[in-house]
Amino acid sequence: MTGLFSEVFLSALLFGAVTAAIPLLLAGLGEQISEKAGVLNIGIEGMMLAGAYLGFVGAFYSGSLWLGFLTGAAGGAAVALVMALLCVRIGLNQIVIGIALTLGLEGLTALLHHFQFSRSYPRLPAADATVIPLLSDIPVIGPAFFKHHLIAYLAVALVFGMGYLYRRTQLGLNLQAAGDKPAALDVAGIDVIRTRTIAVLATGTLAGLGGAYLANVGAGLFIPFITNGAGFLGIVLAMLARGRPVWVLFGALLFGVCLSLTTAMQVAGINIPTDVIQMLPFLAVMIMLVLFGRRASLPAALGIPYERGAR
Amino acid sequence: MSNVSSSSAFKPDIVALEGVTKRFPGIVANDSVDLSIRPGEVHVLLGENGAGKSTLIGMLSGLQQPDEGRILVDGKPTPITSPRHALALGIGTVFQHMMLVPTLTVAENLLLGGPWWQRPRIEELAARVAEITSTLGITVKLHAKVSELSLGEQQQVEILRAMVRNSRLLILDESTSMLTPKGIEELGALMRRLVGQGLAIVFITHKLKEAAAFGDRISVLKLGRKVGEIPPERLRALDEQEIISEIVELMFGKQKDDPEAVERPTRTVRTEAVPLLQVAGLAVASTENAPGLTSISFDIRPGEILGIAGIDGNGQKQLAEALAGQRMATGGSVRLEGVAIETLSVGERRRHGLRYLTDDRLGEGTVGTFPVSINFFLKQIGAAPFWRHGVEQRSEIDRRAAELVREYDVRTPSLKTPVARLSGGNIQKVLLARELAEGAKVVIFNKPTYGLDLANTLASRQRIRDTAARGLAVLLISTDLEELLSMCDRIAVIANGALVGTVANADDARTKVGRLMIGLAA
């Protein structure tokens, strides 16, 4: 138990928490955009998997991590395009299509990976961290928060970017109207279908990026089902955040700590069965849902396809 | 539209409709409607629910496209393809149901629709709003959330929005329905100031008094057709009472060559017979969106048809539901063959012989996705012989259903067809078959021919007459005065949830009922 509170352990724990939180943050921010616009995007788990797989493949063959992020984001967006076509344009049930996309991509990515690499799991070289001068010298906090890949900082910056978008821009107004009262947006002369399509594509891009980060930076390799529910955690985060990006950040960090604790406690060799330890993040989800689930406020038209003049 | 060209103070139409027709499955919502909308005029569109007012608005605001006919904007034929297009043409609409995003502020709602890459220009908007509101004499809280505003305030925001967008034509759809009397007065004054500025206003209502008070020109719609127009010259020459009686003439008056015209019944009801249905002092509490009922009393004898006339929304549905047991009564008694049934459940009342044909055929009358055959027996689910020990007896159901389909002439591809796929008239036949089949003693019909085409209307009416001829007591609720006059023995008029009078269906019944309906003593 002595090792548990040492400086090194603590900073490793926090470093791991941030690393685990970034994909959740990207997924949560992405899901938030869709939900704002009235689309419940259950397919986000599949979008993350597509991002993780294509991100890894892109980085593996090109040798460039950045190209990997690009292919990952594109992969997520491609899945989102299918979702937008089926659920937004044609108006099919968002939950059914979302589940189908997730299950489909779980199988597809596992299959493709098996074809390419058989049973081997090649690793990528460790990602270059962008070390922030001065701040990274602070004990414990420095190595935990200021020695990450550039994408991590960008993801945190995106939190504030999204906050600005929702509060201060015309697009933010349009998104909120599309989710709360699409008919009002339509008669104001804005195409609801197009607004929602943009939102779903943005979700896919961010989820794909999150998946690529998970594979390329977090794990350094791709294994089937690598996201392991990260997309679903993103949905929970978005729902609990009540439309505020900063709450997605806090939630992602909290879950990140839990995920990191799981690893840290196993490494520290604490005498608790690993099964119990691995339950931790999901226990945290349940506790958060019980505590805050009632406060989750969702857009009035969430999950309802829009049809002009429907009566 | 000959009166357009002959008008002395000629102002070109901003928008004109020529022979516009719009159909929905089973219903002709607008049938060859002509309309001319001019600047500086409040053009009132008057008609009851289902007259086709909302569909007309949908087409003017770009939500729907006409099936036939054309819309002219500034004299040029212009298909209005989308709401954005309508706005660009200068047509602003205030819909019956508020079209504001409740979670956004007033300013944000007004800014909705700007180019997405722009920052919302609040300062610019505030200046523009101040300019408009000062000339109109209204105040608007720009930074209040819409959900915190009263309905009247929300409506002002919607009118303001149309003004901010430089609308030349403002459409107000049933705008007074949710306002207080004072709010209605203010809206009237606001409309006068707007037309004073050269705007055109289309004001949709089903209230005669408002039409007479606010209108410069009044068009009357009835069952999708325009049945008349009162031009400004004529409106100015008449006082309010004369206007109202002229409108009543248009709305309820008999037209020549009316195929629906049927000789009044010559059935004789035995006046000494004991009433089958006796209602005394029936009362229902009012709810947020429905009027209550106060001391409703009437008797219906065997073989008699009692009509309930009145402008839609005056408590007709509440009356029907209270009798059927679907709505809690707060007082009064209902007796069927002398047995008190006011405390019984819906099912028990049915077993005593009470039948209710709802006007909401697909909503509460049938289960749209169930096959025709099951819909015949919806109210007998679980009962023998169609169900035994909880198991559906398919052959028994199909056998009986086939009989009913033949007997009631239901045009259905098969017994297995989901009932929602049938036309309105055939759905009504399924309902008639179900309710009239066996054990019926008292039947309540709520708007039995609403939305049906002529052939089905006539068939339904004959069915109702036959029902009475079998010695059943019939309560016929309808907003179609013609229908009541052609079928009933007596007609009671309902207004604001109370029966304001009952008249025997004699030669002067039309005038008497008409006067009762608009609040004058018969």
TrEMBL record, chain A:
It is found in: Cell membrane. Its main location: membrane. This is ABC transporter permease. It comes from the Bacteria. It comes from Mesorhizobium erdmanii. The chain crosses the membrane at residues 6-27, 39-61, 67-88, 95-115, 150-166, 198-215, 221-240, 247-270, 276-293. GO terms for cellular component: plasma membrane. GO terms for molecular function: transmembrane transporter activity. The keyword Transferase does not apply. InterPro entries: ABC_transp_permease (IPR001851).
